[in-house]
Amino acid sequence: MQAGIMGAKLKEICRVMRWAALLMAASMSAAAGTNDAGVEGYWKTPAGAIVHVHPCGSDVCLRIVKLSPIIPEKTDQHNPNEKLRNRSLCSLDAGTGFRQLDATHLADGHLYDPESGHTYSGTIVVEGDEMRLRGFIGIALFGRTEVWHRASPVAESDCR
Hints:
Elements (H helix, E strand, L loop, with lengths): L1 H34 L5 E4 L5 E7 L2 E8 L26 E10 L2 E9 L4 E10 L2 E7 L6 E9 L9
Antiparallel strand pairs: 1-2, 1-8, 2-3, 3-4, 4-5, 5-6, 6-7, 7-8
């Protein structure tokens, strides 16, 4: 008789544990979906500009869609090519040629810094609502990382 009671209790414990495991897996899956939206979308730079990360052909590009309120330049004044120094920073591609490795990783691209006029090799990694851009010359070890944060969509026609 006691073996029958022990068997019933063991079955009940197993049933409860299966439900707990299913609930935990479902909640982890839902959390991963909200925190890992991938690289595409709108991102706010430390200076306050908004950049749209989007597919461009077989690559991924980064386009400025809202200018920084704290940087007075509205044109590409620091470009090494004198003929390009009067072009607007609005709609400027600040990142080109990125190859998407997976939903949260980009590699082999180029990052243009309009504040300095320099172009760097780059990689991008997204973790939740943070994007880490690594710009470098030569190898990634000799570079700098900048963190951007996910932003609300901005109409490119409103770029100012």
